[in-house]
Amino acid sequence: MAAAVAQPAKIPQKGLETESKTHRIRITLTSTNVKSIEKVCADLIRGAREKKLSVKGPVRLPTRILKITTRKTPCGEGSKTWDRYQMRIHKRVVDLMSPPEEVKQITSISIDPGVEVEVTIAS
Questions:
Q1: CA-CA distance, 81 to 6, in Å (whole number)?
Q2: 3-state SS of 34-89?
Q3: DSSP state letter for 5
Q4: Distance CA 5, CA 7 (A)
Q5: Residue whose C-alpha is closest to residue 103's, from 53, 33, 60
């Protein structure tokens, strides 16, 4: 009887891969003021379209509402009256397909105070 000889598995050789020069860039804008976040969002998209970049968005994420209910009187005496405070946090997401060098030029726009910008680069 002939014994079966195990052959080593062939490992596919990777050729020279061309590195992708465009990255998927996700810009997340967060603010409590709707007008300022929409203005910054529109400026970002206008700048990206002037440079002929692929733009997806703005995607409007659900508004986060933070609520605090507290008694008006500090000592607990008197009528039971309550104050209700709330803060609304609005969030927008814009996706760009571009080289990282272009992002610095696009995000160098004037950003209103109160708008937080987070840039995530994925290849």
A1: 83
A2: HHHHHHHHHHHHHHHHHCCCEEEEEEEEEEEEEEEEEECCCCCCCCCCEEEEEEEE
A3: P
A4: 6
A5: 53
Task: Report which of 115, 92, 96 is spatially closest to residue 48, judged by C-alpha positions.
Answer: 96
Query: What is the amino acid identity at position 99?
Result: P
Which two structure tokens, joined as six digits, stand for 71?
């008694």
2 is written with which tokens?
């002939």
Residue 33 exposed, middle or buried by CB count within 10 Å (0-12, 13-18, 19+): middle
Q: What angle do CA 51, 62, 96 make, to 5 degrees?
A: 15
Which tens digits make up the pLDDT trace of 16-59?
444 447 788 899 999 999 999 999 999 989 988 888 888 998 99
> Cβ distance 20 to 123 under 8 Å?
yes
